[in-house]
Request: fold
Amino acid sequence: MGIEPNEVTLISITSACASRGAVDEGKYIHGFALKLGVLWEVKLVNSLINLYGKSGYLDAVCRLVETMPVGNIVSWNLMIASHAQNGTAADGVGYFNLMRRAGINPDDGTVLSLLEAVENLGLLKLAEGVHGLITKCGLYANATVATGLLDLYAKLGRLNYSLKVFGEVNNPDKVAWTAMLAGYAVHGNGREAMELFEGMVKAGVEPDHVTFTHLLSACSHSGLVKEGKNYFDIMSQVYGIEPRLDHYSCMADLLGRSGLLNDAYELIKRMPLKPNSAVWGALFGACRVYGNIELGKEVAVRLFSLDPSDSRNYIMLSNMYSAAGLWRDASKVRALMKEKGLIRNPGCSFIEHGNKIHRFAVGDRSHPESEKIYTKLEEVIGKIREAGFMSKTEFILHDVEQAVKEDMISKHSEKLAIAFGLLVTNAGLPIIITKNLRICGDCHSTAKLISLIEKRTIIIRDSKRFHHFAAGICSCGDYW
Ligand SMILES: [Zn+2]
Ligand SMILES: [Zn+2]
Reply:
């Protein structure tokens, strides 16, 4: 129509592109802005940074920020956030340092981007650094910031820090209460979660469906069946919240955990929504724990059709067969997996030491302290054997010789990480480990025994939850 677009037009189009992930169109607008000579407009540049950052074009983001005549704070925040969301969180922290050197004071947006970066890096020291920054800049009063911080501490295994932050939030809102509840849930502190929920109700803060998901999950992780059922009922009856898929999967987990497999199955069959893989997965986990192969097979078929490419379901079914001594069925499942071209996600564990994350794989010997780690591990396992403990080899997949099995299982990544933790952390401090998959039964028993024999608290966050091992017992009550 012959009307010349200006920078405002371009900002609108760029943000439309960002919401659709349309990078190519965005690049065209970028070029157009150059031609038009309006790329000095900060809002337009930020809009482009947002587009490129969301789509993973980090080089483009960097070039934009570096060539900007006036780097404003939003650009920097977007830059840090882009890196945090694209697997290069360390660079995000690097840009934060550059920003400080450029004399720009962080705001709440900066801190929120940083919290995201630190969560991905999993470094407690950095989290404490951000905590200091929040205090120094007086950003504590911002509920979103404080909630982000307490959430971060819970994810890093420091629930006591989360609680402290929560205690310092003025008039916590629904999101803050729910974040604290989520922390209790993932750490398996069911009773505390219930108390917190009562406190929330007393404070006049209305819970929502997310609050109930965490509350039910907390009950489930602590084996509070009666209480969980009660909350499930009052959720719809008192608060008018219709149960969603998350709530059903918590209930299936809750019932399954206490061995009520048929009740869980009935609940799933009766639910008005189409059950997803999380709902069936909860029942499948219970079948594994209780060795119910008949039901397990049935559930596995549903999971295979819902998630044909998820290798974990195949591995779990194969493990169930192996544990029951049904080697032939186990190898059939593994053959099926191979046929479909599915590969097993290799297990690895992470532990923080000296401002660095140390990574261990199964039988890993790449760590510079490898020799000392293996010596320590053998020493501890020797002590455990003396105490009369035998390896639980049923958790190993392959049908191999007993001695070989014991050898393989004793080199699982979490054991190497624990041995390293024993070597490098001071007595009295907990050993905190992250594992990418579900912890196996043998490593779980071993961690319990090490906590007893070495008098150490060991915290392992696996793909399902946190396990706090102390004095020979685990907070999960051996169900995970
Ligand atoms: Zn293991
Ligand atoms: Zn546990």
The pocket of zinc ion (ligand 2) is lined by residues 444, 467, 474, 476, 480 (CB under 6 Å). Strands lie at 348-353, 356-361, 431-435, 458-461, 466-470, 473-474. The chain has a mean pLDDT of 88.
